[in-house]
Structures are given as structure tokens and as C-alpha cells.
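Minutes, structural biology subgroup

Action item carried over from last meeting: produce the C-alpha cell record for Histidinol dehydrogenase (Virgibacillus phasianinus). EB confirmed the sequence was re-checked against the source entry. Recorded below for completeness.
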Amino acid sequence: MRIIEKSAFLTDKNNRSSAYHSQTVRTRVAEIISTVKEQGDSSLFTFTEQFDGVKLNELRVNEQEIAEARDVVGEDFIQALQEARRNITAFHESQKQPSWFMGEQNGVFLGQKITPLDRVGVYVPGGKAAYPSTVLMNVIPARLAGVPKISIVTPPQADGKINPYVLVAAYETGVDHIYKVGGAQAIAALAYGTESIAKVNKIVGPGNTYVAQAKKLVYGDVSIDMIAGPSEICVVADETANPQFAAADLLSQAEHDEAASAICITTSEEQGLTIQNEVNEQMNQLDRHDIIEKSLEKNGRIVVCKSLDEALELVNTIAPEHLQLMIKNPYDHLHMIRNAGAIFLGNYSPEALGDYFAGPNHTLPTNGTAAFASPLGVYDFVKKSSVIHYTENALSTASESIITLAEAEGLTAHANAIRVRKA
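Output recorded by EB:
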């Protein structure tokens, strides 16, 4: 994890490319999607055997498998999961949006009708780790929005079963269907439907580069939440930051995969060196050491800025997924942050708290998209319809203005649709 100055960091950042934009991956994903559209379930069995090394007899998880999973995970996990579920539910309750209407005045009645989506598909990653937290963060807001049908797709393990922690999380949140399929083929199945998997209206959830590209390619035929990944953290650490804590938090994101990004911004080169040493010392004690080492070599940086203002300006340029303000009086500087997916304040608000337990959603914009995008929420699982009613007198009063505007655009049929209604 190298220490560099701001100007060198910006140059370095601009020169780094991402596999998420690979044309080779895009071409292969397009082929997979086309195959699933043509062959349905049979292609899912074939791709699962090819990519996951698992030969399945059925795609859908049954009730017996869920019951077995509950026995495996133990009561401590179930209790922790339920506590996290309560926190996440409480936070997202505040995001619910009612329909609203403007009372009739002068013959005009207007409003907005909020309607939940009919079907949602949630992608839960497998591979390098299992993510029951992803189940909670995606299913709970969809349920609160009123979505009646929620399906999960997730890669099977080597034994042909779904990770038991993911299964129990799905059961606890009331998921309707769980399918043993991952990768781009799972996204295609949700987008277009197969004999076993119903087509959905929206696909949410993170995944690898193939999943990200698949979501990008099916967008328009279905809605998606965002193109998420790789995971990112940016820690702003002044002289009051605990270097041990800062290092641990940087490592917590670097362990996701080799493409993850861990950036520390500090106003003190001495503090930067201390954090660098802490990172190296802690890394050697962690199970996912090899992944972390590759991640930090490629995308780990400690950036030294001349002042806190310059550091926060750099944060807005990066627009990180996760931002930790480990600085003196972080509340006083919160107004300066314009671009960040989630903001953690102080030494005792680690990013891992947000991943699992605090309540705000951990599905966040990445790759600089926090400059224009927001965390996943209840609002992502509803659609809005405008409601318009004019009485005859109200339309008559407005008719000449409408006709004038329509004729200015050369749309005489529009103007005529008003004119024929004039008294």
C-alpha cells in the first residue's frame, strides 16, 4: 500500500482500467444471455456444470434444504440475523412513500400514485464468500415497498447446495423462491424467464464482472438497481484517527476481492506511515491475506494532502462507495461532503457496522457513481404514476394556452384535441 501525493494519485487513478469495461467479457456475456433466452432451463443446468462444476437435478431450493440449513447455522447466527433485520427494517420504514393528491381547486385535481413493482429478482453472490447480509439489504426494502413476489438467484456450492447462511437469511426475510444458479446466466433467467424462473420487473444485487455486464445488457428489458462493484473504501484520517482502526477498516474492504479499492487520505505523512505499518502487520494475520495483498498492490493507496479542506475536496472527486471521516469533530465537516454512498463518522463507526447491522443499506454506488446515484432503498421498488383530472370548465379556461403551445411545436393534432372540446 503505497504513500503518494494527491497529484500522483489522480494521475494513477486515471490510468487504471477496470475489467468491468472489458469488451471480451461483454461479448461472452451477450452470448450467454442469448443462449438462455433460446434454451431456458437446459442452458442453466449446462452453464452451472460448466462454470460452477456442479451437476444439478433441479434449480429451485426446497423446504427440506431450508430446514437443514437452519440446523447448520445455529441459534447465535439466527439471533444476530434477526437483530440486524430489525435495525434494517426500522431504518427503511422511514423511506416509504405514500401516494399524494392535491385537493381539487378550480376544477383541477392532480396527484401521484405510488405502486410497488410486481416481481423483483435479487442476485446474491457466491464464489469467494457468502453474503447473507446482501439478502437482508435487498429483500427488506422490497418487502416494505410492497413487492408481492421476490426471487433470489445465487450460485450453488460444490456440494450442489446453497450456502446455509444465505438460505436462512432468505427464509427469515420471507423470500418466495430461491434458485441455485449464478453468473450472467442467472441475470438472463430473471430478465427473460425460463420454464422454472419467472421473469421479473427489476434485478438488484451485486456480483462479479460477468454479473455486472449482464445487468447492463438486460437493462431496458427490465430495470436494474445499479452496476455495482468492485467494492471501495475511503478513510480520511487526521491526527486524531486511531491508526490501528484505520488500517483494520481499509483491510475490511480489500478482502472482498483483488479488484477492491482501499484509499486512505491523510493530512500527515507521519500518520500515513503509521497506518501503512499497521496495514502490513494486520494483513499478515488475516485469513484472506492473498486476496488483500493483491487488492492493496493494485488499488490500495495512502494519499497525503496539505490540508483537511484539500482532503475533502479529493473525496468529492473520488465519490467513494464507503467514506469514513476519522477526523476531529466530523459533524462539523459533513456539509462539505457532496459525493459518497455512505458516510461513517468518527473512530467508532467502522464500515463493517454499515455492512451488517446499523440499518442503512449497504448496496451503494461504486466507481464514482456516488456523484449522481444513491444507496438502494424502498424507493427503488416502486413506480410512480401521475394522476390528472380537469373538469370541462377547467379545460376551457386553459384551452387557448394549450393550443398556443401545441401550435408553436407544429403539433396541430394536439391543438385539435383541445379545440374539439371547447364549449
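Discussion: The radius of gyration is 25 Å.
Next step: EB to file the record with the rest of the batch.
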